[in-house]
Specification:
Layout lengths: L1 H21 L3 H18 L2 H17 L3 H18 L2 H15 L4 H17 L6 H18 L1 H13 L2 H16 L2
Helix pairs in contact: 1-2, 1-3, 2-3, 3-4, 3-5, 4-5, 4-9, 5-6, 5-9, 6-7, 6-8, 6-9, 7-8
């Protein structure tokens, strides 16, 4: 059936994207992503489209296309929020934190701390390289802020609700798209 073939295309493209990214073949990942997003959109599966948009953002970041990364991740965040998908809200907040980490370590800290809480609440773990990147960004933020300010931002992150996290991440992503 058409739906079964499209589902197979989405699944295959998603796997190729992940393998390509992990293997450092960013151009291959970008090609695989194009197929993944097109098939998931045609299939009309919002959850798969959310996944495809998150993959697109990751590929764009690895290609230093920050505006595209923010645009894809913002679309992912909006779908995730509408669908009640806290894991993708958390991933979106992590991308937002990565995009502002160098310029706003306080914001990055709040976003990352609450995103990690949301992942824990959902019994979800980051891939090891993603977890390492988050830990490195938190360490840089702690260095930039100093102990007292870092602890304050960390507490502020822990106290955010999931809707607040989504709103803050959306604002960061919107500003990074150039919109």
């Amino acid at each position: 059936t058409k739906g079964g073939g499209l589902l197979a295309n989405v699944t295959t493209a998603g796997t190729l994207t992940a393998v390509s990214v992990q293997g450092g073949d960013i151009e291959g990942a970008a090609r695989a992503f194009d197929g993944e997003l097109a098939a998931s959109t045609e299939l009309g599966d919002d959850i798969m489209t959310t996944w495809a948009l998150a993959n697109a953002a990751e590929v764009a970041m690895r290609q230093s296309r920050w505006g595209d990364a923010a645009r894809h991740q913002r679309a992912c965040l909006r779908l995730a929020t509408a669908l009640g998908q806290p894991v993708y809200v958390a991933y979106s907040a992590i991308v937002a934190a990565r995009l502002v980490g160098g310029s706003d370590p306080a914001m990055a800290t709040r976003l990352l701390v609450r995103a990690l809480d949301a992942l824990t609440e959902s019994s979800h773990e980051l891939y090891p390289d993603d977890a390492e990147a988050v830990e490195q960004l938190l360490a840089r933020s702690a260095d930039a802020l100093g102990d007292e300010d870092y602890r304050r931002e960390e507490a502020a992150g822990h106290s955010m609700g999931l809707d607040d996290l989504a709103d803050v991440a959306d604002g960061v992503l919107e500003r990074r798209t150039g919109a």
